[in-house]
Hints:
single chain; Rossmann fold; globular; 9 strands; 2 domains; binds NADP nicotinamide-adenine-dinucleotide phosphate; alpha/beta; N-(1-d-carboxylethyl)-l-norvaline Dehydrogenase, domain 2
Amino acid sequence: MERVGFVGLGIMGAPMARNALKAGFPVTVTNRTPDRAKPFADAGATVVRTPREVAERSDLVVTMVTSSPDVEAVTFSPDGIAAGAHPGLLAIDMSTISPSASREIAKRAAASRPPFHTLDAPVSGGELGAIEARLAIMVGGDEADVKRAMPLFEALGKTIVHIGGHGAGQACKLANQIAVAINNLGVSEALVFAKAQGIDLERTRQVIAGGAGSSWAMQNYAPKMLAGDFRPGFMVDLQQKDLRLVLDNAYGDHVSLPGTALVHALYTALQRDGGGREGNHALLKVIERLSGQEARHGR
Ligand code: NAP
């Protein structure tokens, strides 16, 4: 079995590393804040200090960090993955970053000494999808590398699709984020409207979730919204990072995305009011404020 490394043990990286362990891979992990990595020693992983040490001890290294500069840093800084590279190393970035950054990382890795291969393999399905190993994984890179990584992907997710060359996985993930953000707005508006109409919110949610108005957001976020539980699975600040990437790329391609631009502006209001570290379903609060209605159980 290939040896697997994880760099970044946050909301997503931690359960993904646990699932790799459960599937029987020998796993080495590191995290910038070392305390977050400590529990992995008891779970059977080797805990090391730097991404370089992870690369030295692994055949496949997964990065699950925040944004493009963070992936570049853990890959190419003096203590990064490239510094611990060996022939046959495959670096798989599963964070959501810019497609052009993924392409650039692939080029730099190929020119590195020793060279190593890369894949971009961002995911969708949220914290629960990561815990339950039900992620959708959208992959960019060479066919042979995708094939090689497949046993690991199958330990982490259920829907695994090779989209195209380097950066194609990230482009697909950004398309996914458009649908996620706009669905979230649809759910928020539906619940606030129902509240204003004076109808039962739970019954409304239940029947919409069984019909054409259903979505992942209706099924997973609406119950949390109604309960007033805005703890993050996916933080507003990360949602905004993704929507900025969408809008920057759309601008470059002269593509007009009015829905995405609107949701981005609404999230900006939420960030201004201190909600950046809340879950992205806290979008409900913005619609509530605009409408003077609180769509929560018992209010
Ligand atoms: P998170 O909980 O904030 O975790 C981020 C992780 O990255 C932490 O382990 C953090 O280390 C590490 N990190 C960030 N910058 C770093 C740097 N420069 N050097 C070293 N380590 C660094 O975020 P998350 O929710 O797991 O998200 C991770 C990625 O997955 C993001 O790209 C996000 O957009 C994407 N994603 C998230 C979800 C979701 O539902 N949460 C779903 C799909 C995709 P520290 O512990 O030291 O801060």
